[in-house]
Each structure stands twice: as C-alpha cells, then as structure tokens.
Input
Amino acid sequence: MKLVLAAACLCLGIAPLAAQEGSLPEHSPYQDFTYHQDVEVFGGYFSGSTGEANVGPQSSALLGVRYGLHVGGPAELSFRLTRASSTRNVINPLLIGNARNLGTESDALLIADAAINIALTGQKSWHHIIPVFGFGGGFVHGSAGQDIGGYSFGTAFALQFGGGLKFVTHGPFGARLDVADYLWQLSYPGGYYVAPTGGTAVLRQSQAQNQWTHNALMTLGITYVFSR
Output
C-alpha cells in the first residue's frame, strides 16, 4: 500500500512538470502574433459571371492592394482596391442569329471595398498560419461606356464574403491567400426584351431586368507589417 501511495505521489509530482514542459512557448504550435497595421500587394484571378444575357464582365487576371487595421481582439478592418482586366461581349439586339454577336471589348473593373475580418485563432498563429473569415461591401465600376445595344456595366454596389489564410513570421513580411465571393447586379436595357423582325429577344419578359450575380476573386499577396 505504501508503495502504491509513493508511486501515486511521484506521478502527481511528475504530471505538473510534464504539463509545464508541454506548454513551453517554444514547443507550442501556437505563437502570439500582434500587429496594428499592415499592407499587402496581391495578384490573382477574377471569375466573372456574364449573366443571362452573356454581356457581364468576363474572367480575367487581377492586381490590387489591401490595407489592414487591427481594431481589437481577433478583428481586423481592411480596405481593398482591385483592378480586374476584364472584357465583355457586345451584342446588337436589333439583329438576329450570329450577326447579333459583335465580338468582345475591354471593360476593366475597379473594385473598392471595406471588410471586417475575424482571425479564427485570435491573436495567435498556428504553425505560422492564421485562418480568417470576413464580410463587407463596396462598389465596382466598369471602364467601358454604353455599347451599341444600350448596355453598360456602370457603377454597382457590391457585397462580399469569404475567407483565407495568413502566413505570418516573426519579421515584417508574410503572405496571404484569400478567396471571396462578390455579389453585384447587372442591369439590362429595355431593348433586350424586344424581339426584332424575324427573330427572338435577347431576354424573355419573365427574366429580371436587374440580375444579381456571383463573382469570385482568388488572390495571393505579400504582406508587410509596419506597426505592431
């Protein structure tokens, strides 16, 4: 019995030491990561939705910059400016058949938005990785004017949500991978609903004149922390 009690006491003495050793910072996969401001330069891919009429912004490469401000706890406020070198189809609704399609033209998009991002590991990184989730809103502007069919993208309000991974180091430089879904409306001209002689209309009367579309942005960038 005394031997059992001695063994139990020995185990109880060793257990806290083992727990303490396991919690040493140099052995933990979690590391503190605190910062106040950072900036990112990124590139990536824009996956655009052309809508029911097939005239919306098409998929293309993109470039942009992002500014991040830590506002407390796991929350970050970010501002992003993105340029997608998109194109669009041009159609003439007064023509029929293949003659209706007039080819493509440049319609680069400028996207400006603000978002709240939440770090899922708080103010710590896991093996130098911080998963984030965020949502926000902003505006998107198409560079091309009104085409021969009366359509233009113009300026639209956009909602966005998505997530990503931040790769952080003990130095100022890191990396960031993000995937976001942007929702905005395509507005079709009234001429798309009028059938030309001997043909059909671009859109049916039952189709909405303002159509919400999903548009994905996938970005990879280099970050620089300039205020901790």
The domain at 31-227 is CATH 2.40.160.20 (Porin). The CA atoms of residues 193 and 204 lie 6 Å apart. The first helix runs from residue 2 to 22. The helical segments are 2-22.
